[in-house]
Design goal:
about 210 residues; alpha/beta; six-stranded mixed sheet; two-stranded parallel ribbon
Length: about 210
Amino acid sequence: MSSDIKVPFTYTIYNDFSTPENTQRLEKASKEYGFQLVNLSDLTDHPSPNYLLVLQKTQKEAIEANAGLLIVESDVTVQKDTLQALFDGAIERKDCGMAAAVTTDENGDINFPYLYAKGRKPQVYDEKKRFSFCCTLLTPTFLKAFDFHLLDPTKNWFDVTISHESIHKGFHNYLFINLPVLHRPHGSRPWKQLKYTNPLKYYWLKFTKGLDKI
């Protein structure tokens, strides 16, 4: 909310079946800070995660407004200039489909999901590898070129698919290593911490419960 943004924007938080206590906190904060709050429990009884529903809903709204879609996941902290700088960077590159801020840990070291970018200089890269939606802008031209209703509804996450579709449609995806954001992986989904603390249990849950499909 304290970002320096020079262009018109709508800030919406999607509450994907948080606890009643956290839902109450979000409703209070939305009145205090003036952001839009969408409680997905009002729209669906499908259990979390509901990324597909959010993507389809926001794509429709963005196209109708001739706007881009800038996704910031809840385990990411941006800097004051991050959002405007991503917007400006995308506008400067007419072939841009997606513009992503690189993620780092508290020490400023690049972390998951952009470990492949470790050691690079702090500049902008035309990237062929997959992007994450940690902090990523999808441009209006790309949003109009690929219908999110074509995404596989049996999956949970769509970062990889959509970033590949952007390139397939002839766009370029740009990774901004000069715009780092703080990423605390899976802060909103504690069970996924098992990937680091107990990988055997994580993969057992992943394959037996059908969780975390990419």
